[in-house]
Design brief:
This protein is an alpha/beta fold. It has 13 helices and 9 strands. An 8-stranded mixed β-barrel has the order 1-2-4-5-6-7-8-9, surrounded by 4 helices. The relative contact order is 0.12. The structure holds ligand C2E and magnesium ion (MG) (3 copies). This is PAS domain S-box-containing protein/diguanylate cyclase (GGDEF)-like protein.
Amino acid sequence: KAKDLGRNTFQFYSSEMNMATLERLMMESNLRHALTASEFELHYQPLVSLANGEIVGVEALIRWRHPDLGVIMPDRFISVAEDTGMINPIGDWVLFEACRQAQAWIDEGLALQTMAVNVAPVQFRQAGFVEMVAGALGTTGLAAERLELELTERTVMHDAEFTLGTLSALNRMGVSLSLDDFGTGYSSLAYLKRFPVGKLKIDRSFIMDLERDADDRAIASTIVSMGRNLRLTVLAEGVETAEQLTLLRSMGCGMVQGYYFSRPVDALRMTELLRSQPFLHEN
Ligand code: C2E
Ligand code: MG
Ligand code: MG
Ligand code: MG
C-alpha cells in the first residue's frame, strides 16, 4: 500500500526527491506514528533449561500491530528502523517495556531469571546507551542481573575497542550479555575471551537440519564444547523436533529455545507458561 502511494506521488515530487528518499520518509513517519499510537507490542519466547525443562528466561520479540495490515514481523521493519534512526526510540521502548514486564512477573511471584532483549547495532552505538539501560532498570525496579542483552557478532566485532568499553560498563552494572545468531557472523575467538559475554546462542541455521546434516552436527557440537570450556552458557535456537533436542542433549547443550517448546506468545499466555512450567521434569 505504501508503495502504491509512493508511486503515484512520485510524479509530483520527482524533481525534488527520488523514489527511495520518499519511501524512506514515509516509512520513517509510519514507524514514528506506530510508536506514538502504541502499535508495537512485545511477544515472549521461553528459554528452557535442558537440565530440568524449566523456563528460566524469556526473549522479548517485537511485533507491529498495524490497524490495516495486521501483525508485521520484525524482519520486515527492523532494518528500515535502523536505516532511518527510528531504531533508537523503538529500541528504548522495547527495553523499558521488557524490564517493566519482567518486574511485573517477579512481583507476581513468578521465578524469572532472565529477560533477554535484542539490541540493534545502531542502538548499541548511540550516545548514552549505557545510561539508558541504567534508566530502564532504575525506573522499573528490575535487578540488573535479570537483564540480558542479545548482540550479534556483527555488532560486537565492528570497532572492538568501543565495544569492549560499552560491554564492560554494562557488565559492571550486573547486566549479562549474549551473542545472538552465533556462527553466522565472523567472530575472532580471541574476543570471546576478552569480552564479558556469558552466553552463546547457536544460530537456527545450524539446528534446522541437525538430524540429517553431519556438518551441522559437527558445528553445533564444537560450539557447545568450546562454550563449556570457556565457561559460557550455550543455547540452541530454533529447536523444533524431539530428535534435535535429543542430539543437543547428548552434546551437552545447556539451554534451548524453539517451536518444539513454544512459539513466541503474548504476555498473557507467557504468564500462564511461567505459572504452569509445563516442560518441567524431575532430573
Ligand atoms: P532473533 O533474535 O534471532 O530471534 C529469534 C527468532 O527466531 C524469532 O523471530 C523467533 O520467533 C524465531 N524462532 C524461534 N524459535 C523458532 C523455531 O523453532 N523455528 C523457527 N522457524 N523460528 C523460530 P522473530 O520474532 O520474527 O524475530 C526475528 C529477528 O528480529 C530476531 O531474531 C531479532 O534479530 C529481530 N528482533 C526481534 N525483536 C527485536 C527487538 O525488539 N529489537 C531488535 N533490535 N531486533 C529485534
Ligand atoms: Mg535474539
Ligand atoms: Mg537469534
Ligand atoms: Mg536469528
